[in-house]
Amino acid sequence: MDNSVYKIVEVVGFSETSWEDAAKVAVSTVDRSIRDMRVAEVVKMDMRLEDNRIVGYRTKLKVSFKLE
């Protein structure tokens, strides 16, 4: 196994459906600009509210990727 260095970025995904979909949105968006992602850790989940109703779900992730 070779020595490696990883960088971690925090991202927040949003979905009107679920926390899981919000996480998928975040990962698929990061995938467009970062190569070699390794781990996505859920840091926080919360909801967006309007007029005392849930209108969306947010999932905050720490995504790690290998530096070249």
Strand-helix topology:
Layout: E1 6-15, H1 19-30, E2 37-50, E3 53-66
Antiparallel strand pairs: 1-3, 2-3
Outline the structure in words:
With 68 residues, the protein is α+β, with helices and mostly antiparallel strands. It has one domain: Flavin-binding protein dodecin (Dodecin subunit-like), CATH 3.30.1660. 18% of the residues lie in helices and 56% in strands. It is built from one helix and three strands, in the order E-H-E-E. A three-stranded antiparallel β-sheet has the order 1-3-2. The chain is elongated, with a radius of gyration of 14 Å. The model has no long low-confidence stretch (mean pLDDT 94).
Quick synopsis:
The chain is of the alpha+beta class. It contains one helix and three strands; from the N terminus they run βαββ. The relative contact order is 0.35.
The top level CATH class name: Alpha Beta
How many β-strands, per DSSP?
Answer: 3
Number of helices: 1
Spatial order of the strands forming the largest sheet = 1-3-2
Question: What fold name stands as the CATH topology?
Answer: Dodecin subunit-like
Spatial shape: elongated
* Portion of residues within helices: 10-25%
- Which stretches of 5+ consecutive residues score pLDDT under 50? none
Largest β-sheet summary: 3 strands, antiparallel
Mean pLDDT, as a whole number? 94
How far is it from the N-terminal to the C-terminal residue, by CA?
15 Å
Task: Indicate the CATH architecture.
Answer: 2-Layer Sandwich
